[in-house]
Specification:
The protein has helices spanning about 5-15, 25-30, 55-60, 70-80, 95-105, 120-135, 155-160, 165-170, 185-190, 195-215, 240-250, 300-310, 325-340, 340-345, 350-360, 400-410, 435-455, and strands at about 35-40, 40-45, 50, 110-115, 145-150, 180, 220-225, 255-260, 280-285, 295-300, 365-375, 375-380, 415-420, 420-425. The chain is of the alpha/beta class and about 450 residues long. A hairpin with a 2-residue loop joins β11 and β12 (about 375-380). α4 runs antiparallel to α13, α5 (about 95-105) runs parallel beside α13 and α6 packs across α12 (about 300-310). The radius of gyration is 22 Å and the shape is globular. The structure holds pyridoxal-5'-phosphate. Pyridoxal-5'-phosphate binds near residues 153 and 258. This is Aminotransferase class III-fold pyridoxal phosphate-dependent enzyme. One of its GO terms (cellular component) is cytosol. Belongs to the class-III pyridoxal-phosphate-dependent aminotransferase family.
Length: about 450
């Protein structure tokens, strides 16, 4: 028997549902919010409240909710063939077509894809794949992967180890061996006394230092998100990525771009990392707009040639690698993104409009910095503003101002995420100018309410 009654749902949720990344003590007191419907960029909860989804679900619903052609593509595939695997010399029609389509969208030099069920599984795949690559080339000692503090690369053992979230490392004895971290290119945190450009070069130099500490002959790869998402939309200085590529080249190490958030148009390119020529690209989320789970790794010719020609069999795979329904959903989702020119719009008019409107929030008394990159954006809540961002005064962490603000956002019609006192959004790529105006208006109203509460 299923129920739709909110009170009963809350009780059942409390009794049975162990949620990801949720403080269950706090949840018990408040009760969970039950989302029941989505249309376009809006969601409705079980009590009839409407909210504008500034986070695209969890950074994924690029094309918005309720797209009828997605329903059609998914249900037709379920009718035709709901499941078959890709192991042992078999494949399915949508899996092949999606592999082909992705090879067309990926940067030059990427002809292969390995499918997984999620971004975490894709990053686990990366760990095994880069170690296999170096083994096959006769360098089994090259097994260390360098990542960054405050990065998010998933929740599996390898994904959470690659990630640099101390709260995750504290639980379960992470990181696993062979994964080390360097600082993140967070100008506001670490760039005092420098221009953004100078700081970008310095932050990249931490990679070279770590390579030399570990020993260049032991390092397999460096992994990073083009813009750190879950860490708080950390937008690196323009000088950072070219330096990272130069350093990877200097020591011959592989560069893995984790594009689980940034892939498929969010930063105004199909793959944001294209200019700095990665060797592997992790994707998930936007590939299906979250309608059905799917992830994977785009594999460059450099890696694929070794895996295929020298390796033969890669003893790795998931039941749902290349799931035909997920692949059918991805094909339709990518068709929509292309036919509505969402990538071009984010790179052009809607991206520019979001930047203009969102950065104007910096005039609010609570906002120290407001910035965007494509269709991700973040603002810093500060106790005292100053022109020099490094002289701004932060709120006492115990006040949890970000969480106060997040509650005002949610209760007043817009979903915005808090990472400490940094408020972030990653709205659906289909947003119109009028919807951007509406979203920024709702954000400003919630900032006013936050100011009243914390001043
Ligand atoms: N990598 C990045 C950059 C992510 O943001 C995420 C999820 O937010 C993941 C990997 C993990 O993806 P999933 O939750 O699908 O396992």
């Amino acid at each position: 028997m299923t129920t739709h009654d909110t009170h009963t749902l809350r009780e059942l949720d409390h009794a049975h549902y162990l949620h990801p990344f949720t403080d269950h003590k706090a949840l018990g007191e408040k009760g969970v919010r039950v989302m029941v419907r989505g249309e376009g960029i809006y969601l409705w909860d079980s009590e009839g409240n409407k909210v504008l989804d500034g986070m695209s679900g969890l950074w994924c619903v690029a094309i918005g909710y309720g797209r009828s052609t997605m329903t059609k593509a998914i249900s037709e595939q379920i009718d035709t063939l709901p499941f078959y695997n890709s192991f042992f010399n078999t494949t399915t029609v949508p899996a092949v077509n999606l592999a082909h389509r992705l090879s067309q969208l990926a940067p030059p030099g990427f002809k292969h894809v390995f499918f997984t069920g999620s971004g975490s599984e894709a990053n686990d795949t990366n760990v095994r794949m880069v170690r296999r690559y170096w083994d096959l080339l006769g360098y089994p000692d090259r097994h260390v992967i360098i990542s960054r503090h405050n990065a998010y690369h998933g929740s599996t053992m390898a994904g959470a180890s690659l990630g640099g979230m101390s709260g995750m490392h504290e639980q379960g004895g992470l990181p696993i061996p062979g994964i080390v971290h360097i600082g993140q290119p967070n100008y506001y945190e670490s760039g005092a006394g420098m221009t953004r450009e100078e700081f970008g070069v310095q932050a990249a130099s931490w990679l070279e230092k770590k390579i030399l500490d570990v020993g260049a002959d032991k390092v397999a790869a460096f992994i990073a998100e083009p813009v750190q998402g879950a860490g708080g939309v950390v937008i690196p200085p323009d000088t950072y990525w070219p330096e990272i590529r130069r350093i990877c080249d200097k020591y011959g190490i592989l560069l893995i771009a984790d594009e689980v958030i940034t892939g498929f148009g969010r930063l105004g390119r199909w793959f944001a990392s294209e200019p700095y020529k990665p060797d592997l690209i992790t994707f998930a989320k936007g590939v299906t707009s979250g309608y059905i789970p799917l992830g994977g790794v785009m594999v460059s010719d450099r890696v694929a040639d070794v895996l295929i020609r020298q390796g033969g069999e890669f003893n790795h795979g998931f039941t749902y690698s290349g799931h035909p329904v997920a692949c059918a959903a991805a094909l339709e989702n990518l068709r929509i993104i292309e036919s509505e020119n969402l990538v071009g719009r984010v790179a052009g008019e809607t991206g520019a409009y979001l930047k203009q409107k969102f950065t104007a929030l910096a005039d609010h008394p609570l906002v120290g910095v407001a910035e965007t990159s494509g269709f991700v954006a973040g603002l810093n809540l500060v106790k005292r503003k100053a022109e020099n961002v490094h002289q701004q005064v932060a709120f006492d962490a115990d006040l949890a101002v970000g969480m106060v603000c997040r509650a005002h956002m949610f209760n007043n019609g817009v979903i915005m995420r808090a990472v400490g006192d940094r408020m972030i959004i990653a709205p659906p790529l289909v947003m119109t100018h009028a919807q951007i105006d509406e979203m920024v208006g709702l954000i400003r109203h919630a900032l006013d309410l936050t100011l009243e509460e914390v001043k």
